[in-house]
Amino acid sequence: MKKKSKDRIKTILKIIVSVSLITYVIYSAGPYKILAEIKGINVLYFIIVIFITIVKIGVSAKKWQILLKAKGEIKNFLHVWRIYYIGNFFNLFLPTNVGGDIVKAHKMSKVSENSIEAYSSVFMERFTGVIAIFALAIVATTLFFSELPYEILIIIYLIFLPLIILSLIMIWRDSYVQKFKGFVNTLFKSFNPFSIKEKLIKLYKSVNLYTKKKKTLGYALLISLVFHTMLILTNYILALSIGMNIPIHYFFIFIPITAILLFLPISIRGFGVREVLYVYFFTQVGATTAQSVSLSFLVQLLGIISSLIGGFVYLFSQTKKI
Q1: What are 87-101's pLDDT values in tens digits?
Q2: CA–CA distance, 78 with 316 (Å, rounded to integer)
Q3: DSSP-derived 3-state class of residue 247
Q4: Measured CA distances, 273 to 73, 197, 291, 317 (Å)
Q5: Of 35, 82, 187, 282, which residue is 20 to 30 A from 106 by alpha carbon distance?
């Protein structure tokens, strides 16, 4: 079967998963109840959340600029911010949550002295974000250990914590560069389209070099903590806007878990998966199914609005020619 046919089938399956899950949660919650929750939203809270989201994008773009600078790629903040927003815009049309990252890396590579550094900076921008959100979930879980269902404790301590440790070891230790090189050489021994073997090795080496720049990584992790705290706060404020009064510490646990699980390539940009996870988590701590689904829809709407802002940036940006 040709690759295009396989990709088409995968996309169709993802659409089926997303539609099926969304249909299920709407049916379970009751469409009229969901509509009533959304219609009763406090508009002022929603405006505040949009403002926080705009600031949040700027914060993350600043982190990316710092990571680029550490590799000698001196870029104007506004230029980095524009490309970041453009990547956010393309997330609307690409089937995965990391599709926008590929767009960002590609566009930055066209104006960089070393295209590999552009790709590795995007990887580290995402990687430090994942580590930060893992850390927030682990701290919140530890502080409120006694209030959580055992399933969540298993996810945090038996899955998240080992993943953090393993990821840091693989990135940090120089010996893994040679191991990765051997793995890639074996994997692409007889088939190496577009010199992908050499590019992957260079990318891994470039990512590994960030570990020698501890000050840069410290700044990146700190900014990531700020970014994801803002992300969690937007969810909390949106919950308040529909009268969903759940203690804020639950958001510091549930939102990180959801954010990580949304990376699983089983749906279109997490549609349906987020809704099911919100229902599963928040109904355990006092929210109704309709409130949980409504919150998820509002978060999706916020993401669309943010992407559309990126569309305006793209429309009036010279980077669309790159």
Answers
A1: 888 887 776 667 778
A2: 13
A3: coil
A4: 37, 34, 16, 33
A5: 187
